[in-house]
Write a structure and sequence with these properties.
Blueprint lengths: L1 H34 L3 H21 L3 H22 L1 E13 L4 E11 L2 E14 L2 E13 L5 H13 L2 H25 L1
Antiparallel strand pairs: 1-2, 2-3, 3-4
InterPro entries: CENP-P
Organism: Illadopsis cleaveri
Keywords: Coiled coil
Length: 190
């Protein structure tokens, strides 16, 4: 009986240690993000937010004001989705390495561009340079629903090799839009 109670305590200790590790990692993420700003910039942002918060508290007291703002945001999101064709369904970010001079994060995005589903995984290396932060994409992996076009497969492979995430999003947007047009056209003739 004593052994089972010791095991229960050990399990609880391990669970608490894991929770402490996760909270420490979250704290480090927040601390690292704030380390890129000077004390003056942080104080200026805090004062600005305090001023906005006081003004916004008065303005947002009514429920109808919040509903109107939500509707406005939904319209903006709908416009951006219609304009770009991208609809992101999930995003996850995990910090792999963090030092004073660099941060490596692993990102995973899933979504659709028009009717083409995709999943993108990549590592982002961020290094502060004076007042700016430079970012480099590496280990790019793109998974798309089965497309019978071999040119798209070649494009995806070359994009992965170069680690050119921006080119992927630009190109897949145009391709997916025309893919939809081709699909409708062929259905029309069937």
């Amino acid at each position: 009986m004593e052994e089972s109670s010791f095991q229960a305590y050990e399990d609880e200790i391990q669970a608490l240690e894991e929770e402490i590790r996760q909270l420490t990692e979250e704290y480090e993420d927040i601390r690292q993000e704030s380390a890129f700003f000077s004390d003056q910039e942080i104080l200026k942002a805090i004062k600005s937010l305090e001023g906005e918060a006081q003004g916004e508290t008065k303005r947002r007291e009514s429920l109808s004001g919040l509903k109107a703002e939500l509707e406005s945001l939904e319209r903006d999101l709908s416009f951006l989705t219609a304009f770009t064709g991208f609809h992101f369904t999930s995003h996850s970010k995990k910090t792999v390495e963090r030092t004073k001079n660099r941060t490596v994060q692993k990102h995973r995005l899933s979504g659709k561009c028009h009717s083409l589903s995709f999943q993108v995984e990549f590592q982002l290396l961020e290094m502060p340079n004076n007042e700016k932060v430079s970012a480099v994409v590496s280990d790019l992996s793109i998974i798309m629903e089965s497309i019978e076009d071999s040119n798209v497969s070649k494009f995806v492979s070359s994009t992965e090799e170069r680690g050119d995430l921006l080119t992927f999003f630009r190109s897949i947007s145009a391709y997916a839009e025309w893919y939809e047009h081709r699909k409708r056209t062929f259905l029309h003739f069937k």
